[in-house]
């Protein structure tokens, strides 16, 4: 039963990562307002307003990273072939997501007036995603080790 939960958690993490990539790529179509709504740095919003290449290039790079993260989640779930450095990558992705999730939450705990609702909920979402990666992978590998021992 643990294995199924692990696969479910990793597939959910992959869906979140791939949807995040799609949301970022949508800024290429929707423009500066989309960058602002996704809390992009001011430099990227200015780049989108001035129609320079910084915003779209950064957008494609970040979206590619999220797509790769999605593939690693699917690989950890065993739905696609095993990718290189899978274990290290899953844990690194989980750590990055958890840290990204904790940052706005700890600021909100200390100074709630400086964190808007959107940043707070993005933080919660990142924290949950990081936990999905690490818990899902741990459950998946615990099932694999049980199968090998039998």
Rg, rounded, reads 17 Å
Shape: globular
* Average pLDDT figure: 91
- How would a textbook summarize the main sheet? none
Number of strands: 0
Low-confidence stretches: none
Tell me what portion of residues adopts beta-strand conformation: under 5%
Element order: H for helix, E for strand: HHHHHH
Distance between the termini: 16 Å
What is the oligomer described by this structure? single chain
> How many separate domains make up the residues?
1
Helix content: over 70%
Query: Helical region count?
Result: 6
Which class best fits the helix and strand makeup?
Answer: mainly alpha
Brief summary of the model shown:
The protein is an all-alpha fold and 150 residues long.
